[in-house]
Amino acid sequence: MKAAAKLLLGIFFISCASGLPTTPNEREWSALSAEYQKLEILRQSAGSMPGDASRKQRIESLLESHKRMEPVFEPFVASLREYYERTGDLRAAQLYAREKIRLGDDYMNVLARYDRAIGMYQAALALEPTSMEAKERLQKAERLRFVSMETFSTIQTGMKEGEIQKLIGTPREDWIKQVIQNNRVYTVWIYPRNDGGASAVYFDNGVVYHTNWNAAAARKESR
Q: What is the pTM for the complete model shown?
């Protein structure tokens, strides 16, 4: 305890010596807010995807948007984090948490990287423990990360892709396989299970014609 107290005291004196405030202040917060507004304007300039855009188009648009914003986003987040860690300003914590949630939404809703989304929502909750928005999204990402037998068993022949998306989510892009034969599009969506195995849903021109809970065997327990 004495060592920790000395370390904190040392950090305090270093911050004071550097001339940077160690408590929330309007001068720095106003500057950060102005930079955030620039970031928001840049986001809005990208526009929105049409409702009938394909998943491939949405992924490409998202990745392009992230690439375009990176030169502005990364320095801003670094400054926001440094200011929050130095001052403990709750406004900075809330804004930082909001950005974590925003990234989590991209991972969950577009890229289907549910594990990455979970990490973002957990980070948001560490910053803002009372955030219902982060809690609800975390629950959803955890539910979609692995397909359950109970939910998978409700899939019926004749269902369409949109119905499966609502029921068990969309798999990662690299877990979707497609073959075109005789003007028909045969697609398989592969979903991981929490036992290490995988399940699959098979589509014929966007309509379910087969499912397989044991498409890939569960991992063997090591002895």
A: 0.82
